[in-house]
Amino acid sequence: xxxxxxxxxxxxxxxxxxxxxxxxxxxxxxxxxxxxxxxxxxxxxxxxxxxxxxxxxxxxxxxxxxxxxxxxxxxxxxxxxxxxxxxxxxxxxxxxxxxxxxxxxxxxxxxxxxxxxxxxxxxxxxxxxxxxxxxxxx
Length: 138
What we know:
This protein is an alpha+beta fold. The protein contains two helices and seven strands; from the N terminus they run ββββαβββα. Strands 1, 2, 3, 4, 5, 6 and 7 form a seven-stranded mixed sheet that branches.
């Protein structure tokens, strides 16, 4: 019998501003270096999803976010054997001056441009759906 891989619980923000989405590029020192992703991160044991996302956005971008509705959840199994369950939330409002604290770069992009970026495998399906105008209302 094979061990069941633990599924890492992760939250991610779909931050909208002027009909553009914020995307972030991992640094060359991180796993899956220089891939693009949506800001967010791992949920700590006993932490609620919304609280985890608020904490991650403060740590990564220095903002105090108002977390909106959950947009979707997806599960992805990497070829290496790891698995993640991603919970995507809409963020339409935040306070504070956004600053890039941990990423190679951050960019605001139109939805239609999303597929041009080299996203993490786990994000590719949602990237396609967002680019097609699905999932988020303006």
